[in-house]
Amino acid sequence: MSDMLVKLYDLPPLQPALDAITPLHIQIRPARVGEEYQIMPWIAQHFNESWAHGVVYAIHRSPCSLFIAVEKLPPDPERANPYVLPPEKLVGFACYDTSNRGMFGPMGVLPHYENRGIGTALLLTALHAMWNENYAYAVIGWAGPVDWYANRVDATLIPGSEPGPFRGQLEGK
Question: What is the topology classification, in CATH, of domain 4-75+86-157?
Answer without folding.
Answer: Aminopeptidase (3.40.630)
